[in-house]
Amino acid sequence: MSQTIPPILSVLPTRALVDEKFKVLVENLPAGSPVTVHALHHSEDKDYWEAYAHYISDHKGTVSVAEDLSFGGTYTGKEPMGLLWSMRPVPGSQKGLRLRKMDVHSPMLVNISVYSGHIAEGFREQPPLASALTERWYMAPGVRRIDIREKGVRGTLFIPPGPGPFPGLMDMWGGSGGLMEYRSALLASHGYVSLALQYFSPGELKSAELEFKYFEAAFNIVKDHPQVIPDRVGIFGLSIGAIVTMYLAAESTIIKPRCCVCVSGSHCFPRGENLTIFDQTIIRNFHKVRVDENDYQIWRDLILPITSDLSLKVDMGKITCPMLLVNGHDDQSVATLECAEDITQMMHAAGNDHLLTRVHYPDTGHLIEPPYSPHFRATKYLVDTTKAKVTLLWGGQTKPHSDAQEDSWRKILAFLQQHLYSTSSPKAKM
Fold it and tell me: Which residues are annotated as catalytic?
């Protein structure tokens, strides 16, 4: 591509929260030039993730990722954020990788480059026409991060900037264990004191910390914090975290959440004092696990058919706070749609279905993350019951799953705003 003025690539804003859109613009190209726009991220696990798309510059020699059509690559069509949500491990990487931000003090750095021609490989072997670095943050400026080690509770508390007090959230991830902070950091960036709760370590599902008094103690740490409005504390759970959320909302006599968000969860497990019963349910039903043509494990049948025995599921008729269920039609890990239907029937029979809001999405899998996160159809997973590392099929197709992540996050924030803030409150900006 011969020209005298070099191309210019800009990414605006260069620094933003992960759920904010950016605009990628390439200028000073010859009119009608085929180019490839490429995104590259080097993860904290030292893996490389990439996305790319093929464009043709307009009569002014410009390509706008937000406004122009991609003709090929990891996504096609008009997709302003496709360079992020269609990211995948570079060729030759290990199978079953998952991209998650562990250190929320630092941004996710993404290098955006433009190359001459429509290419699909060899990006690191040829020089780009132009490049720009963008920072994607989970933690907005002024958000405070505090380690929690009190009353036996382990976690991290994120406090928004400003005088407060703020509504609060107890935030729980799923069965992979460990301490996941990035969603809580993002929630604090939107004005909520959020506790990222560690409720078992990887491979420790039988931990004593799974007694329900542990979750009640954690909830009260949020409620009693001086920066929290004590009667405006909710619970946010994904997968096993959503199971715990439903159980606490229905059964706890100690805590009364103002509202609950349950992503990809189930109400089907025996009631008891701790979650070792969940472990027993997996062991008892493990013969129902299927594998697909790639030898990926499918777990959604573990709780099917949905039982009619009330002692084997959360009594959703006892729910007294607004609850939002977010589910994918192609969840291959948990039978969430069947559970949602049963939850609806149980709450209708009890006369509390006015508290229930459901959103569900076609071709969407189990791992419904904050927006623009890459889609993971299947990843490696340590099975607590057998100590074996398998590849679990989570489900979903990249484009619709990514659309669902963006739409559901918008609905989740609106739900939290409605039930935890009495008046409109500005969110933190980069």
Answer: 239, 331, 366
Asked if the structure places residue 429 within a domain, the reply is: no
CA-based torsion, 409, 411, 414, 415: positive or negative = negative
Dihedral sign for Cα atoms in the order 61, 66, 72, 73: positive
Report the predicted TM-score, pTM, of the whole model to 2 decimal places. Answer: 0.93
Which residues constitute the domain of residue 410?
Answer: 144-420
Tally the domains of the chain.
2
Write the CATH number for 55.
2.60.40.2240
Tokens of 66: 């937000």
pLDDT, one tens digit per residue, over 396-405 is 999 999 999 9
Give the distance, in angstroms, between the CA of residue 356 and the centroid of all CA atoms in the same chain: 21
Contact between 215 and 251 under an 8 Å Cβ cutoff? The reply is no
Cα–Cα nearest to 219, from 200, 197, 240: 197
Cβ atoms within 10 A of the Cβ of 405, count? 26
Q: How many residues can be counted in the chain?
A: 430
The span from the CA of 45 to the CA of 199, in Å, is 23
Task: Tell me: do 73 and 26 sit in the same domain.
Answer: yes
Residues 170 and 286 in one domain: yes
Domain C-terminal end among 97, 112, 137: 137
Strand partners, 12: 23
Last residue of a domain, one of 137, 167, 189: 137
- Tens-place pLDDT, residues 244-280: 999 999 999 999 999 999 999 999 876 665 565 566 6
Q: What is the dihedral of CA 150, 156, 157, 160, to 10 degrees?
A: 160
- Distance between CA atoms of 353 and 366, rounded to whole angstroms? 24
